[in-house]
Design brief:
The complex is a heterodimer of chains A (245) and B (788). Chain A has 245 residues and is an alpha/beta fold. Chain A has a domain of 164 residues: P-loop containing nucleotide triphosphate hydrolases (Rossmann fold), CATH 3.40.50.300. Chain A has 6 helices and 10 strands, in the order E-E-E-H-E-E-H-E-H-H-H-E-H-E-E-E. In chain A, strands 6-7-8-3-9-10 form a 6-stranded mixed β-sheet, sandwiched between helices. In chain A, strand 9 and strand 10 form a beta hairpin. Chain A starts with 15 loop residues before the first strand and ends in a 12-residue tail after the last strand. Chain B is α+β, with helices and mostly antiparallel strands. Chain B folds into 3 domains: 204 residues, no CATH class; 177 residues, no CATH class; 181 residues, no CATH class. In chain B, 53% of the residues lie in helices and 19% in strands. The longest helix of chain B has 55 residues. The chains are: A alpha/beta (245), B alpha+beta (788). Chains A and B meet through helix 1, helix 2 and helix 3 of A and helix 1, helix 8 and helix 11 of B. The complex binds adenosine-5'-diphosphate (ADP) and magnesium ion (MG). Magnesium ion (MG) binds next to helix 1 of chain A.
Chain lengths: 245, 788
């Protein structure tokens, strides 16, 4: 089993290339500077954890990377594509083909079963795995035909992960995926994310304000007041199963 | 099926009662639209086919007597395609077992072959052909049915004082008598009036018209000017006592069918328009709420790469399912009710075959109209949903900002209970929403006002016609105008208490280049039995000089009191004179003109003559009176007010009642739909808050009171406004229905208003209770866990 860090090989072009990225909300008196100039390169297969206090701009950064929102300034490149200048249709296509999202509150469609929630995405993706495969990957093979209301929080979050990775995305973006879960379920969910990152080589960014999780990462970014104030590279990734908080 | 579609179906299932409410409202509008348009199509196409196949004439004329040779002259008029001349004779019928006298119109059949124009349609028995068949007659179906006569039965009639018995050879229909009613009568009375046909030879012999004719019909070549043909006919017939030719637009049977179609046309627009607007409004309310609830789902779909277009289409389909359901229900309803109403038309109109024909084009148009209504309903909601950047949509909506309600701020809040105060604050928090809900409730109230105002309008017309204007027991018409002594004779009939004469003459009234032909009535100045009434229900005393017109006729001729009018008499000595218009009378059907009887007689120049009389008859001597009229040969026609009124109750009133009931039912369904939908939306909006109340220990009743309180407040605010809207709607719809021939006054009664208020109140209470029941089943934990 190879756990070679991608950073150690001859540097291939980064997946994300971010320079001087800014994002402000509102105007005049009420203006909020959510990102104040972020520089960042992310590489294929990397596992990156983003730490920071509430309101430091973590979600804003993730949303920009995921093409959910457009930056106010700076450059944001995904491979050859300039996401900063992409239009609505371009961003939609980018999200559809390349990005998998996992949110704190799962955001499943309550009227669809686990399998159907995943299938919703595999229907529109160009080269998806089957919903069953995706659900097996997160260890939910047995509960495929349950509706969200019949699943626990951890299970719902794993369905959300299965939904995110079923399209074999190049990037998996998780915004506080364990924020609403207890320790044990949180670890199960993190294991699922770790496994995807490892087995599919998906560039993974996980936002958290739980510092323990950073032990899983190749790199840890710390945000405060819209700036990356600290970057730590872990020489050794700790498996999710070994985490406790 | 795509998974979004599967989501759609499951969401629909969760919202089924609301979706059904919207679909039902839509279906009500469509049912009426499809029903009325289909009836119009059925009546028009049936009528046109019938007219064409049986060669219904285009110009008609009656005269005293002209020799056959004149026919050539008529045929030679430029623009005339075909001519049919013949004899028409008014007769008194003698029906065994019937107290009141019956009259009939016998028309001649040509000596050779079939009628050239106005051909008959044989229903049963056989036609009369050739010169033979002495003593045989064809009878019109309406009369035959009403009197249970079949081919082979016998019927007696008095022809020029001579009583004769005929055997009925066949039962027939004629395009001239689609509506089989005595001349001048607004309503059919098939038991006492019938039409018949018999060979020319026999009829001519009985009426001393051998070798002559007294009526004619003709058709025109395509593109011929009807007016110039009519003028030419009048010129030719003048020496022969012509009474003025007229076109189809004045033909009594034709105008009845046309008026019915006109009324349907008015109804096919007004009601459906209102209902469909309401449906669009409700669709918008349901969809807005649904989209607000699914804000995060929409954001997730966008995050996963669904395009705005796909998401918009998804929600539009939601509305489309409702449209399809509504259209299907509406089409079924329209077809079913249309069939019913076609049956009803058999009561009035005699066609060889009147089948329901579905207006398919309308069905397609209906789907388009409703889809459009749905698009309009959904557009705004979907647009704001897909516009929201997904990152933002994922954030829960900011908590609503509340402040004390107005009544609390002015210090009377402490008199209210907590739930009531919450209800007030809820309304104050989103005044726009509250306003919209109130508007919907007001519409529900308004819709209920309309059908009842129709019923009240019709009742008003009937009361006006039969209680205020016509106060006689019976009207008798003489076969020919008679001397003053005739009035004394009528007064001397057994049981007669009062008698007032009437003189009638066919005239053409002209003002500038506008003109109308109608019967001008001469009445005594202080006439008490047939009164001339103005718009304020005041009696108009007919002056010794001048003419009184019904308001509509004045409008048609564009004259006002004080203006002069040219009168050309179309009968007798045919004088022409000018009279000033002195007053306008109120009238709800057709048009009318009146003069003082002495003034009219002077103008006609034939001395003092009467055409008939209005009589009141003592109840105790009624049968005696009827027997006497049957034995008086000079009496042509006896119109018994009560018989017409009863006949009307049984036929027209019943049919109008049916239509009105249908509409009222629909309005009630719509009102319930609107109210229930509003209650559901409020429940959905308050769900979290109400669940919180339950969790912290409020009882079900107390929590329900918040919801009920809010709905009650909104309903109370909506009701007065709704009555105003309803009055406006009723007025607008009556405007679209009214025309020169049929007019309804706008009558709004307290009972009508009370009913609307009652239905909406009951609907509110029931809807609130239903919503409260849902509240009881609320999964408290689930609601609180979900981020709404
Ligand atoms: N749509 C928005 N409008 C206004 N301010 C926003 C919006 N989104 C985020 N912010 C502000 O930007 C800052 C960064 O927010 P966010 O990226 O969500 O922080 P984090 O995820 O680190 O808690 C916060 O101060 C937040 O209030
Ligand atoms: Mg955040």
């Amino acid at each position: 089993m190879s756990s070679a860090s991608p950073a150690s090989t001859v540097t291939p072009p980064p997946v994300f290339q971010v320079r001087g990225l800014t994002k402000t909300y509102g105007e005049g008196e009420a203006v909020v500077r959510a990102l104040a100039g972020v520089d960042l390169d992310c590489h294929a297969g990397e596992f990156i954890v983003v730490l920071g206090a509430s309101g430091s701009g973590k979600s804003t950064l993730l949303n920009l990377l995921g093409g959910l929102d457009s930056p106010t300034g700076g450059t944001l490149r995904y491979r050859d594509q300039n996401l900063g200048t992409a239009d609505e249709a371009g961003l939609t296509l980018y999200r559809r083909n390349s990005v998998g999202f996992v949110f704190q509150f799962y955001n499943l469609i309550p009227s669809l079963t686990a399998r159907e929630n995943v299938a919703l995405i595999t229907e529109i993706a160009p080269d998806p795995m089957t919903p069953e495969e995706a659900l097996e990957l997160v260890g939910l093979g047995a509960r495929m035909d349950h509706f969200p209301a019949q699943l626990s929080g951890g299970e719902q979050q794993r369905v959300a992960i299965a939904r995110a990775i079923a399209k074999r995305p190049a990037v998996l973006l998780c915004d506080e995926p364990t924020g609403a879960l207890d320790v044990r379920t949180g670890i199960v969910v993190l294991e699922a994310i770790e496994r995807i990152n490892r087995e599919l080589g998906t560039l993974t960014l996980v936002i958290t304000h739980n510092a323990v999780i950073s032990d899983m990462a190749d790199r840890v970014l710390t945000l405060s007041d819209g700036l990356i104030t600290q970057v730590t590279a872990n020489p050794q990734r700790k498996p999710a199963s070994g985490l406790r908080w | 099926m795509s998974l979004l579609d599967r989501k759609l179906l499951r969401d629909l299932r969760a919202l089924k009662s609301q979706a059904l409410a919207v679909a039902l409202v839509m279906a009500c509008g469509l049912t009426m639209m499809i029903m009325t348009r289909s009836l119009i199509l059925s009546l028009e196409s049936t009528r046109d086919d019938y007219y064409r196949e049986h060669r219904f004439a285009q110009v008609f004329a009656k005269l005293k007597r002209a020799p056959h040779a004149v026919t050539e002259q008529l045929a030679a008029i430029p623009g005339v395609a075909a001519v049919q001349t013949g004899i028409a004779l008014q007769v008194t019928l003698d029906l065994p077992g019937m107290a009141e006298p019956a009259t009939g119109l016998i028309q001649s059949l040509p000596e050779r072959g079939e009628l050239n124009l106005n051909r008959l349609h044989l229903r049963s028995g056989r036609m009369l052909v050739g010169r033979g068949s002495t003593g045989e007659i064809l009878a019109g179906e309406a009369f035959a049915e009403a009197n249970n006569l079949k081919p082979g039965d016998e019927i007696s009639a008095v022809l020029y004082g001579r009583r004769q018995t005929f055997r009925i050879a066949g039962i027939v229909l004629s395009p001239e008598f689609v509506f089989e009613a005595p001349p001048g009568a607004a309503l059919p009375n098939n038991k006492t009036y019938g039409v018949f046909w018999m060979p020319y030879r026999e009829l001519a012999a009985a009426s001393n018209l051998d070798g002559a004719f007294n009526q004619l019909s003709l058709t025109l070549v395509p593109g011929a000017a009807e007016q110039s043909v009519i003028a030419a006919v009048d010129r030719i017939l003048r020496p022969y006592g012509g009474r003025g030719a007229y076109g189809r637009e004045s033909h009594p049977s034709h105008t009845r069918v046309r008026d019915e179609i006109n009324v349907l046309q008015g109804l096919s627009v007004g009601f459906p328009l209102v209902f469909l607007s309401v449906a669009a409004f409700m669709t918008n309310a349901v969809m807005s709420r649904q989209i607000t609830l699914q804000r995060e789902q929409i954001a997730m779909l966008k995050a996963c790469g669904f395009a705005n277009r796909e998401i918009g289409w998804h929600y539009f389909k939601f509305a489309l399912v409702i449209v399809v359901a509504g259209t299907a229900l509406g089409a079924l309803g329209g077809v079913a009710l249309g069939h019913q109403l076609v049956e009803m038309y058999h009561l009035f109109f005699r066609f060889p075959q009147l089948d329901f024909r579905l207006a398919k084009g309308v069905l397609v148009a209906a789907i388009l109209v409703c889809s459009l209504a749905a698009v309009i309903g959904v557009w705004g909601a979907v647009r704001s949903a897909v516009r929201l950047p997904p990152a933002e949509a994922m954030r829960p909506e900011p908590p609503a900002s509340f402040r004390p309600a107005l009544v609390e701020r002015i210090g009377i809040g402490r008199f209210f209970t907590t739930p009531f105060r919450m209800a007030l604050r809820n309304i104050g928090r989103r005044p726009a929403r509250a306003l919209l809900t109130s508007l919907a409730l007001a519409l529900a109230t308004g819709i209920l006002v309309v059908p009842s105002s129709f019923r009240d309008g019709i009742n008003h017309v009937l009361d006006f016609q039969w209680d205020l204007i016509q106060r006689q027991t019976v009207f008798v018409a003489l076969i020919e105008p008679g001397p003053p002594r005739a009035l004394a004779d009528l007064r001397a009939l057994p049981g007669v208490i009062t008698a007032e004469p009437v003189r009638a003459a066919p005239v053409e009234l002209r003002a500038g280049n506008r003109f109308r032909r109608l019967g001008l009535n001469g009445l005594p100045a202080g006439s008490t039995l047939n009164r001339v009434i103005d718009a304020h229900n005041r009696e108009i005393a007919l002056p010794p000089h001048g003419i009184v017109l019904s308001a509509k006729l004045a409008e048609v001729l564009a004259v006002r009191p004080g203006d002069a009018l040219q009168v050309r008499v179309l009968d007798g000595k045919r004088p022409e004179f000018s009279v000033p218009v002195v007053a306008l009378s109120e009238d709800f059907a057709g048009t009318a003109a009146f003069m003082e009887i002495g003034a009219l007689n002077r103008a006609l120049g034939e001395g003092d003559r009467i055409s008939g009389a209005y009589l009141t008859v003592a109840g105790g001597r009624w049968t005696e009176f009827l027997r006497a009229t049957k034995e008086t040969p000079r009496i042509g026609n006896v119109v018994i007010k009560q018989a017409i009124r009863d006949g009307f109750r049984k036929t027209t009133a019943e049919s109008i009642g049916l239509i009105q009931k249908i509409y009222l039912t629909f309005a009630t369904v719509v009102a319930f739909g609107i109210v229930y939908n509003s209650a559901r939306i409020s429940l959905s909006e308050r769900q979290r808050e109400l669940a919180t109340l339950r969790v912290i220990g409020f009882s079900r009743g107390e929590v329900g009171a918040v919801l009920v309180g809010e709905l009650t407040l909104l309903t109370l605010a909506a009701l007065p406004f709704g009555l105003v809207i309803g009055s406006g709607l009723a007025s607008a719809i009556i405007q679209t229905v009214n025309n020169e021939f049929v007019r309804l006054p706008l009558i709004l009664t307290p009972a009508n208003y009370a009913f609307a208020v009652l239905v909406v109140s009951v609907a509110s209470v029931l809807s609130a209770l239903l919503a409260c029941r849902r509240l009881n089943h609320l999964d408290l934990v689930g609601v609180l866990k979900a981020r709404d």
